[in-house]
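quick one if you have a minute, typing this from the bus. below you get a single protein, a line of residues and a line of whole numbers that encode the local backbone shape. could you go over both lines and see whether the tokens make sense for that sequence. anything you notice is useful, everything is just below.
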Amino acid sequence: MTLRAAKKRLRNDSASGIKDLRDVSVLVMHPDDEDGRNLIEQLQRIGCQVRVQWPIPERLAIEVDVIVLAVSPESLSTNTPWLLHASTPPIIPVIAYENPIIVEALVQLNACSVIPSPVRSFGLLTALAITLSQSRKAREREKHVKRLEGRMAVMRTVQQAKIILIETKGMSEIDAYNALRDQAMAKREPVEKIAEALVKAHELFQRACS
């Protein structure tokens, strides 16, 4: 890819990301004050689908893309453990000041950006874009890890099946794999499925004999 093409792709990706913000559903958890109303107005101006809930509920009953949360000693004292769950949408804290308690709360919320109070238009779009981008990348990493874990599990199962054949049939490792592969081809099944069936059958036989 040429430098010009790379720059063009970057511009297109950035424009697409900004355009996507117009369809983002945002749950605003902020007291009904001037700052909260200004926050809602700015989000609506961006084009976000805004929903408002205050005080913070004991559980999240609606599906949204991101939560904008007023973080203060009062809000931190509420019984809201769901805010720290891995399944909770990404959270953008709104903070009026910094102190060790607030900073610790931001770390626990896994916040990658914040909105300073009093709320201004500047910085809000950036906070949304960064938070959603990081959340998307985190989900992609999680999917990648799960795929790798799945592949490792398959490899372990196939290895177990080969060991069973080696120990019970006196086969070499290559012959054991070829036997699994031939059986898979005959039954038109993946090798891992044949291996899994062999491992389960061997375990049942072992239990029956014990």
